[in-house]
Amino acid sequence: MSNPIATLLDNNRAWAERMCEEDPEYFKRLSDQQNPDYLWIGCSDSRVPANQIIALPPGEVFVHRNVANLLHHTDMNALSVVQYAVDVLKVSHIMIVGHYGCGGIRAAVTGGECGVVDYWLHSVREQYNHHRHSLDHLPLDDQIDRMCELNVKAQVNSLCRTKILQRAWQRGQQISVHGWVYGLSDGRVKDLKCTVTGLEQVETLYRIDRIQPSD
């Protein structure tokens, strides 16, 4: 009987040998430093590989993934990734990338008992409830795809409301936050045209500079 883990290790050895044959300096360059311009915040779905989708080699994209590509302000994992990318790596672009047909979005829209992930997806359910009047006339699959877009836009807003991004903008750091959705059926990325490039684009209520210091 075959051992799937042994197969993976064999695949790794064959891949490493092939890379060294094609480019003897490949692993040396990777190990010297990490200097990406991009942070990708995407879904954990195995069909959405960040580097392959935008045709960039390892070392060019810093990646964080979770179910339904969410940015919760209580998620220390995601916030640590963002802070490292912004403050240490000095990335220039952050892409929040959803994908059509997302299972997490479907679970939030259709309901049911999904275990612990129900807590994780609570904010998506609230979004769906907020937009339900404009979605009810659509077939279920179209509702889910539309929610994938709305969710990405909500996460762009959520990220831009963090002090990490706002302080970087205040000190003059050039960072743009983009919202994308990937199509599993055609491999194309759709730009949702919700890019934020500075503090002045953040709603006043969520800006850290809205309260002036007293004299």
List keywords for this structure.
5-stranded mixed beta sheet, 215 residues, Carbonic anhydrase, alpha/beta, 2 domains, globular, Beta-carbonic Anhydrase, Chain A, 5 strands
What is this structure, in a nutshell?
It holds the Pfam family Pro_CA. It catalyses: hydrogencarbonate + H(+) = CO2 + H2O. Helix content is 46%, strand content 13%.
**Strand order within the widest beta sheet:** 2-1-3-4-5
CATH architecture of the largest domain: 3-Layer(aba) Sandwich
Helix content: 40-55%
Rg is: 20 Å
What oligomeric arrangement do these chains adopt? single chain
CATH homologous superfamily (4th level) name of the largest domain:
Carbonic anhydrase
**Could you say how many structural domains there are in total?**
2
Largest sheet: 5 strands, mixed
Strand coverage percent: 5-15%
CATH T-level fold name of the largest domain: Beta-carbonic Anhydrase, Chain A
Query: Tally of extended strands?
Result: 5
Parts with pLDDT < 50 across at least 5 consecutive residues: none
How would you describe the overall organization of this protein?
- With 215 residues, the chain is an alpha/beta fold.
- The chain has two domains: 1-32, no CATH class; 34-206, Carbonic anhydrase (Beta-carbonic Anhydrase, Chain A, 3-Layer(aba) Sandwich).
- The chain has nine helices and five strands.
- It has helices at residues 4-22, 26-32, 50-53, 76-88, 103-110, 117-120, 122-135, 140-160, 163-170, and strands at residues 38-43, 61-66, 93-99, 176-182, 189-191.
- The chain has a five-stranded mixed beta sheet with strand order 2-1-3-4-5.
- Helix 3 (50-53) links the parallel strand 1 (38-43) and strand 2 (61-66).
- The model has no long low-confidence stretch (mean pLDDT 94).
- One of its GO terms (biological process) is carbon utilization.
